[in-house]
Amino acid sequence: MDLLEYQGKQLFARHGVPVPSGAPATTVEEAVAAADEIGYPCVVKAQVQIGGRGKAGGIKLAANRSEAETHAAAILGMDIRGLTVHELYVEKASQIDEEYYAAVVFDRGAKKPMAMLSRMGGMDVEAIAEKDPEAMVKLHVDPLIGFQDFQGRRLAFEAGVAADVIRPVGAMLAKLYDTFVAEDAMLLEVNPLLVTEAREVVALDAKVTLDDNALYRHLDSAEFRNLSAEDPQERMAKERGLTYVSLDGNIGILGNGAGLVMSTLDVVAQAGGRPANFLDAGGGSKAEAITSAVEVILSNDDVTAVLFNIFGGITRCDEVAKGLIEAFRQIEPTVPFVVRLDGTNDKEGRALLAEAALPNVHTESTMLEAAERVVELAG
Ligand code: GDP
Ligand code: MN
User: Fold this and answer.
1) Exposed (0-12), middle (13-18) or buried (19+): which is 301, by Cβ within 10 Å?
2) Which of 5, 59, 61 to mutate to test the pocket of ligand 1 (most atoms within 8 A of CB)?
3) How does pLDDT run across 240-264, given as a tens digit for each residue?
4) Which atom of ligand 1 lies nearest, measured to the CA of 20?
5) Is the distance from CB of 206 to CB of 190 less than 8 angstroms?
6) 189 is catalytic
7) Residue 43 in contact with ligand 1 by CB distance below 6 A
8) Would the pTM of this model clear 0.85, i.e. be above it?
9) Which of 43, 143, 206, 379 has the fewest other C-beta atoms within 10 Å?
């Protein structure tokens, strides 16, 4: 789950990472009230889960109340790279002296968290990497030992940050690492990490991604979930406990087991089709789970055909067939289905389907044939 800047900053503040004071707002009136409270000059910032807000005009400095009002009115409702601004963050303005870049991420190759620091902040990481790859210094952290204070100072020294801020920058890295671990984050990015004219070190921006699978132990963070920004099918699937990922094609896919579903996506693509989703109904899927999954797949209007690819191990093909029959009874789909049932109780499953004579359901015996058929039917 990606957090908005102000939500990330709330987590930062909880773990002692210095951030400017600020308040979120959803209306112009709220924004003006927040600005009055914070004092001028302040900054009005669009809250959308995407970077580059500054360049897009979503971040404006307000010297007084009337400017705060003008900026809040202009930014609310603004479109930033496809996202509409519904929330603002009003923050005390900072006097910028230097802009650095800091991040804590997982290095999956090294199987360790990694801290990164560059003295070239304020621009995209990609731009930093391109302009001066040497400028980004990295450090792997042993998760059992944790982040040591000397490591922060060494990283700051290696990155070439100004001598007078080596200690506070190092200390901020240690606190970012604390935040990363304590909040079960997957990514923390501070760009820019600011040195103010008073030589204070603060996080001026926050990009935080939390691990969805750990949200059950962070009920306060779970409230950050922005339902309106989530894909409607993914949200529906999550509520039903299904493993579902939206894709941009038109062929709905259902399989059992992540590996089989991945292969199915590949075979459909090989046959010239474009999958609309990944949906793993899981091992041992009962009829009810199948009905529920069909509802999620068909709630996507882009879907013009559906492929069921089931390999029965623990899952019994007759249960899947029953689920499909029930789904047809409840939903009466208007798009064609191609079904491949193989493995445990496949004969019984196919017999049930034949007996039910569902309209527009085609059975195929191999995965490739099924994929070719569904691509043809999807048009
Ligand atoms: P992003 O464009 O979405 O990454 O948003 P940021 O929060 O990183 O802000 C973009 C840029 O706006 C920063 O790099 C700063 O240069 C500028 N900015 C943001 N807040 C302030 C502030 O309080 N004072 C000043 N002078 N500039 C700011
Ligand atoms: Mn930024």
Assistant:
1) exposed
2) 59
3) 888 899 999 999 999 988 999 999 9
4) 23
5) yes
6) yes
7) yes
8) no
9) 379
